[in-house]
Amino acid sequence: MRKINNAWIIDDDKILTYVLQRIMGSVDSIENIEIFQNGKEAINQLSIVQKDPESLPDIILLDLNMPIMDGWQFLDEFEKINLDKKINLYIVSSSIDVQDHNKAKNYKTVSDFLIKPIGKKQIEQMLESYQH
Fold first, then answer.
1. Does the first or last residue of the chain, that is N or C, have fewer Cβ atoms within 10 Å of its Cβ?
2. Are 59 and 7 in contact (CB under 8 A)?
């Protein structure tokens, strides 16, 4: 498994973010995990660190339904940012709507669409497929 310096979780569900943080924290290949309650917080942080590849996330887990800035709005803004690093972005949603899955495929930055709840096995599979 490749080393992951920074993983970001963008989700307003405090229980889920706690569980994901615990699961991801138990994996030796992940060094830092940051939590954002909505897409706006994450976009603000990206604008601060965008020119520093070491501070950028390697992986982002993104929920779709959040207040202030939802996952779709985040993706629209994220794709406008010119980054010097490839970031593997995974949508993590409870949505089983085919339209959401199809819409996600229209974003070149989305690596995969994972259905909640996700556990250690799905996290490990995601990390196995992680590409720099």
1. C
2. yes
Could you list the residue range(s) of the whole structural domain that residue 8 is in? 4-128
Q: What is the CATH number of the domain that holds 100?
A: 3.40.50.2300
E-state strands within 1-132: 4-10, 30-36, 59-62, 88-93, 110-115
Task: Provide the residue-wise pLDDT of the chain in tens; the chain has 132 residues.
Answer: 568 889 999 999 999 999 999 988 887 778 899 999 999 999 999 999 988 888 999 999 999 999 999 999 999 999 998 888 889 999 999 889 999 999 999 999 999 999 988 888 888 888 887 755
Cut 0.90: pTM above it:
yes
Look at strands 30-36 and 59-62 and give their pairing: unpaired
Q: Which two tokens stand for residue 85?
A: 């690093």
Pairwise CA distance, residues 82 & 71, whole Å: 19
